[in-house]
Design a protein that fits this description.
By secondary structure, the protein is α+β, with helices and mostly antiparallel strands. The chain contains 15 helices and 19 strands.
Amino acid sequence: MGKHAGFIAWLVFLCSVLCGAPCAARAQDFPTGQTPIVEGYISSISSDTAFSVVFDTQFPIQERHVVITPQTVFWRHITQMGQDVMTDDPNVPKEWAVGDDVQVFGRNDKHLHAIVAAQVLVRRKYEHINGYAVVQRVIARSPQLVLEADGYYIVVPHRVVNDSPPFSGQIPRVNEWIKYSGRFDRAGVVVVHRIVISKFVLSKRLRKGLTKSQGKLTAPIYGNGAGEYGKDGEIAAPYIFGRRNTARIPANWELQQRVQEIGERLIPACQKRLAANDPQKIDFRFYVVDDKSYFQNIGTAIGSPDGIVIIPERTIARLRSDDQIAAILAQGVAQALEWQVPPSVVGSNGPALIQAAQMAGPYAGLALSSIGLYEMLHGKYPVRYDPLQTERVALSLMHNAGYDVLQAPVAWQILNYRDAKHPLALRPPLQSVYLSNLVHLEYGHNLRAQLQGPLIPPQ
């Protein structure tokens, strides 16, 4: 679309002239009561005269291309005398960015395969994307500082580095924690206007508690040799299960090996480079478990800062490929890296927090503020909770490991597919919609065309 945007805009302009449309005429009244041709989020900006919008109400995500003409009128919401009103503003296209919520009024042009916009309303802007995360990569130092953290590519202008203590012209290093505020720009990266380096230091009490949370493993006997027998193992992981629960490890060597290989591939390079005695080093261990009663309402991977990552056997059985298994297993790796709270710790608060994220829309993770890394006690364990951060970081882990990120929303769709006869059976889960939007925002430059195909529910 980008390479044809200039020609399309020129063609629309020529048609308006030939048809006698008054180029200088501007509609001064917002089309109240009219239905927009498309409403959703800007997924890409090809040029000053063309952009694309993804629907926020359908799944799989669909995209429409929009062409701007000299007659297009732009509107934005402003607060005036304490009231939320709309005003026309021709400078809107100079300021909007990927992720902005828009309504487009106009007409469909079959020849251009695009919407010719008569009026465009920017409903709200994600001015504040706040986060607290560990730096996984320093991608570039010049001409701007570019980091990978929190599942985003984060651009730090030099003026921000120089003006933000304790930087003093220095840049954050890999495995350091940063707290940042920014917003998406036209390239689909987060440009920050404030960033602070923060070091997470465990108190002696929490360090002792975390040591006690180390899992105890009774290794399974695989019985691969002639005359040998197989025997299931067992794992006790207090950080994940609590103190009284354990999970069975099936004596399935091939399955355990498959999960171990996928998991090790997902571990980021920043972790692998740490010395064995580094306090941030995580000793990752991946286990397939079978505990139908405990995982009945979870069905996903769970990780903890002590490095244990578990995934239910029946979850793997429902997925169709290593890419889909990687999408779910990456959740546990991300939880460990970001010191996220496992579902067993969230307890009864989990559904309420997820519901709050759903109310914020499919871009909830872009707008919600991170709670931050702090020493909150659950028993003796340090925990944090940040809605949808694990999904976001897991997607970046998949991408860096060479897995197909398009399979992440598919995997979540499969795991949430229940009774095919139920009217809500094909309703997309929050994770699927959110991850599909992230793929558009961050990886859409080479994957967008592949997102048009429908998801096929599992047989």
